[in-house]
Amino acid sequence: MSQAFAAVKAGEESLLCRSYSRYPVAVVRGKGARLWDADGKEYVDLLAGIAVTSLGHCNDEVNAALAAHAEKLWHVSNLFYQEEQLELARLLLSTSHHQKAFFCNSGAEANEACIKLARRYMRKVKQRDAYEIITLEGCFHGRTLGALAATGRENLSDGFAPLPEGFKQVPAGDIEAMKAAITPATAAVLVEVVQGEGGVVPLCGEYLRQLEALCRERDVLFMCDEVQAGLARTGKFWAFQQYGLKPDAISMAKSLANGLPMGAMLATDEVARGFEAGSHATTFGGGALASGVAAKVVEILLRDKLADRAAELGEHLKRELAAMQTRQPGKIKEVRGLGLMVGIELAVDGKPVWEELLRRGYICNLSHGITLRLLPPLNIDKSDLDGFLQNLEDILAQIPA
Ligand SMILES: *Cc1c(COP(=O)(O)O)cnc(C)c1O
After folding, report:
1. Less crowded by CB within 10 Å, the N or C end of the chain?
2. Cα of 141 to ligand 1 centre, how many Å?
3. What are the DSSP E strand ranges found in 268-364?
4. Is the pLDDT reported for residue 137 higher than 80?
5. Residues 247-287: pLDDT tens digits?
6. How much is the average pLDDT of 359-387?
7. Is 226 annotated in some ligand binding site?
8. Which CATH number belongs to the domain containing residue 339 in this structure?
9. Do 182 and 328 lie in a common domain?
């Protein structure tokens, strides 16, 4: 452990709440897909702040937009009209079938907005006392009490009871279980098209289509959590577009402002009727600065066709990993994912592999101790992915089968 790192680590332990277990790296600087630590060591960042810096660290164009907006206006609150929100709303709505946007500050908040809108739409517009939200096992929707109730994982809610009522989980991929779970009290079904924190688990397209049809048949809202998979990452602008779905509302956050805290919900005109002036609010949501930056991010994602690039690079990664799986028998159990959201489930202990990658300067996430999760910037050079592949194969080749 270097002195520089030890000092940061000691500071963290004495000053911050014990809420995170961190990687043994103190990051001081970033550019594009590169990070540097306190000792000057360089890393290839294949995690992008957990799918946040999709345009790379300290992107020049985003920096310029940030600087320009910083000189113009930071924050006035939602008591005022702000052109920046409209510009961002126009751009986002041009990418989907929705007509209305609501801005907030995080993924959990975007899901809270979906949950609150679904309940209020049912009560006030449909005149039905339907409030229950059904989610899928293995999902992740955030850490506020409502989002935690939606997530429903006991290890995450340990010590925090009571959670809000009106949530239940069913097994993913089991349409019969969903049929049995929907009752007259059900307001909405909320799903991730690719479960991210769950270990990069893409749901089957046929199941998702059946699920949406079931929601229509039972007059229940169908909502997608696009916080991690959205905004061009999976190879379509929205992950739900992979299967021609038309969710009533979607949540997004992570890469929306490339690292500034920013979240949003998009909804159809019909379902957006659930909110009236005063129904839901946030002080910071859609602030001029964050909205101005987010509009630039969305503009670049569209202009540079980064969804197509994510699809191409994702195919390349998956093809190469499948070949590696054959060349290195007994090392890789499964390669999953869509676009640049890739999970490599190992057949060997994941921790030493992840540690050796980090030692060699490749940052990725280790999910459930067994799955290497890659969420690189969408504009990453192909050669960086190839460098990762070479190092991974070299590491796997040295492990006895
Ligand atoms: C990260 C994530 C969230 C929570 O977002 P926060 O900004 O941490 O609140 C919600 N849903 C999904 C799918 C996520 O990946």
Report:
1. N
2. 5
3. 332-338, 341-346, 362-363
4. yes
5. 999 999 999 999 999 999 999 999 999 999 999 999 999 99
6. 98
7. yes
8. 3.90.1150.10
9. no
- To 10 degrees, the CA torsion angle through 343, 347, 351, 355? -70
What pLDDT score was predicted for residue 379? 98
Q: Rounded to a whole number, what is the distance in angstroms from the first to the last CA of the chain?
A: 31
Residue 257 DSSP code:
G
**Ligand 1 centroid, distance to 352 Cα (angstroms):** 27
Contacts of 179 (CB under 8 A, 6+ apart): 214
* Mutation choice for ligand 1 from 112, 141, 260, 284, CB with most ligand atoms inside 8 A: 141
Task: Among 303, 325, 352, give the residue marking a domain's end.
Answer: 303
pLDDT of residue 400: 87
Q: Please state the rounded mean pLDDT for residues 132-144.
A: 98
Query: How many A from CA of 225 to the centre of ligand 1?
Result: 8
pTM: 0.98
Contact 186, 152 (CB under 8 A): no
pLDDT tier at 224, thresholds 50, 70, 90: very high
- The domain of 368 spans 41-58+306-397
Number of the ligand 1 atom closest to the C-alpha atom of 192: 13
- Closest Cα to atom 15 of ligand 1: 228
Ligand 1 atom nearest residue 196's Cα: 15
Tell me what pLDDT residue 401 has.
Answer: 75
Is residue 204 assigned to a domain?
yes
What's residue 156's pLDDT? 93
Instruction: Identify which of 44, 18, 39 has the alpha carbon closest to the alpha carbon of residue 374.
Output: 44
Ligand 1: residues whose CB is within 6 Å? 106-108, 111, 140-142, 192, 196-197, 225, 227-228, 253-254
Q: What was the pLDDT predicted at 349?
A: 97
Does residue 20 sit within a domain? no
